[in-house]
Amino acid sequence: TEQDEQGQEVPRFGVCSRNLDLKDTEGNSFWEAAKKYDLERKLIEFNAECSMNIAIQGELVGEGIQGNKYKLTGRDFFVFRIYDIKTGEYVNEREKDDLCYILGLKQVPVLTFMSVNNYNIDSLLELAEGKSVLNPKTEREGIVFKCYTGDQRS
Questions:
Q1: Which pLDDT value is given to residue 151?
Q2: In the chain, which end has fewer C-beta atoms inside a 10 angstrom radius, N or C?
């Protein structure tokens, strides 16, 4: 949120790439994804109704994005994690699932929930090899491990 001239909080919506606040310019893939999912309206309404202030982090994939590794048609956005600006913490996986459902967003594919305690570096590297969930005709770029803490924020 931002404050107007009278000191009242007003919602602010922005689209960023890494550490850059992007301007809404023609052909900007990130803004196109935000518009495709109507994120400005959805987030402003959601944040107001639920007294939250969330930021969504995700991956933009498809044509014209980093060589389109997965050979997808068009472009799409997949949520990686969601940050609760008010609490200064990321929401947990269950909350992220719920928020993505409510907001009509796709998530980065999850391969499995597992403990990595029984793996060594070589077996983890072997696990990272394989076909993509986004396009089974292509090799995946790798895998990401996230700490799953149940009901706690992670």
A1: 53
A2: N
